[in-house]
Design goal:
The complex is a heterodimer of chains A (about 290) and B (about 325). Chain A is mainly alpha-helical. Chain A has twelve helices and no strands. Chain A has a single domain, classed as MetI-like fold (Orthogonal Bundle), CATH 1.10.3720. The model of chain A has no long low-confidence stretch (mean pLDDT about 85). In chain B, α5 runs parallel beside α6. Classes of the chains: A mainly alpha (about 290), B alpha/beta (about 325).
Chain lengths: ~290, ~325
Amino acid sequence: MAIFKKKTKKPLSEYSTGELILFRFKKNKLAMIGVAMFMFVTIMILIAPLIRPYSMVIKQDIVHRLNPPSKEHIFGTDELGRDLLARILYGGRISLFCSLAIIGIAFVTGAIIGGTAGFFGGKVDTILMRIVDMLMSVPSALLAMAIITALGNGVWKLVLALSIGQIARFARMVRSSVLTLRNREYIEAAKCFGSSSWRIIMKHILPNGIGPIIVSATLTLGAVILSISSMGYLGLGVASPTPEWGTIISENKVNIQYFPYLGVIPGICIMLTVMSVNFIGDGLRDAFDPKSKR
Amino acid sequence: MENEDRSVLEIKDLYVQYNTDDAVVHAVNGLNLTLKEGEKLGLVGETGAGKTTLALSILKLLPDKVGEIHSGSIVYKGEDLVDKPESYMLGLRGHRISMIFQDPMTSLNPTKNVGDQVLEVINLHFPELSSAEKAAKVDEMFRLVGIPASRKGEFPHQFSGGMKQRIVIAMALIAEPELLLADEPTTALDVTIQAQILELMRKLKEEFNSAVVLITHDLGVVAEFCDTVSVIYSGRVVEHGTVEQIFEGEDNHPYTKGLIHCIPSLSDTSKRLQPIPGRMPDPRNLPEGCCFADRCPFCREKCKTSMPEPHEKDGHMILCHLYDPKEDGNA
């Protein structure tokens, strides 16, 4: 744990691989900015009840409708006079946590499917990849709608539905990266030293192939936040008046022309989140690569 | 075949083939090989002769579904490996039989530090040791291959080629294998480093008394390092003998003669080198008779139609019609 002390005398060469990754990650300024931004957004969302009670999310106040940002309503009010700050704080819970869950589920499942297919090849590969092709041949929005219709409405069903739509791309990506890696000589060498397949996948293929996949996963986050809202717009998953960042934008779109803050503020929230996760992803990619100079 | 009890590896009549979509590639065709404890055997032959295929067959690491051991036996210490399950092989690889690869630049994982990579082999085969014992073993091995243990935490890209090969050798030898397969360990290195690596391998060989199979196409390396030599052509051993018998003996297989003629000599400046004309027969479509017949300066009618029998004299085996005692004087 010497790494947490500021003035450590321990030379770099004595760090374990994990410590080194952490060290390189911490040295990356952009990644640390990303972490700070992400922490800020997460903390604000978590302490939302201290800032605004949940009642303000749904409390309508027609007299004060479409008030621009002021002392009383820091982010202003919407068409129905609801406090935008409260809606964004509570909306973030769904937007942020659901999208992270969706990416997480899709990433893990996709990695398992793609990794197995790529590593073992042959019939396993053919069968798994044809299943993935089936998933890919259906537009992901349509697929999600079909799943929600079958399972019924609900936040967790929405997460499940949207993550299934994302599995295919991760499976494809992981498979192609495993395919390029599995014939490398150090994989062959690992086999010669008696490593089992599972060990080779976990210790040799994963660390070498994970970089670009992490970056792509973080880039997908923005798209996923928006797809949650498009589902909400269609009345599937998160239904009004439950707030959610994408939904806030879509329900205010008529008024955006004259009251731009209604679109700009939730937009900035989405942008900050996506950007922070992206910076973190970039930082992780560099941290996993021992050759990176940063 | 004498000294059955002391042989580490005995390969008999091994046939290995690659089943590709459009043809069957016969990579190893009836190969015989015996390796005694602590023996240093050189496997010589040109590209595509089946040297690496042989090494991979011993470890049973032929490419999945394509490579196939068709028939024959690979007996390691009395156990035939050909029909052993994968779980048995996992315990064998790296522990009893190790392999050193041709290109040290690519045979190390770029994302793990070298200490961890050497440690991994210990973790695989000696999980019962305490972490301190494991670390001590790794440090000891680093000392043996001549790399300061303080560089354990560095990554492969921070080392030079020769240093990387030392690390690969450390990984191969840390479990003290009885058999070491070195697949062209010096080909990717420059000459000064070559000598160092060979010296290191010799030193370590004495330390652990492993038997070594050195696969190479560099006859100079073989003459310097090995006790015995097997010359491989088209997946068969065409000549086998001690280093003296091969390099200084009077009788040689015509192919071995050709190989020796290809070595440039410092004292002999006037002549051009004499390359062996032609190429190896297509392994998808092997000739009926001797495989070397098309390129052989001593080729006769008989060579094209029938396979020669091995002829042995004082442990010096030659597979050629020229040395058939039944034949009348020739060549």
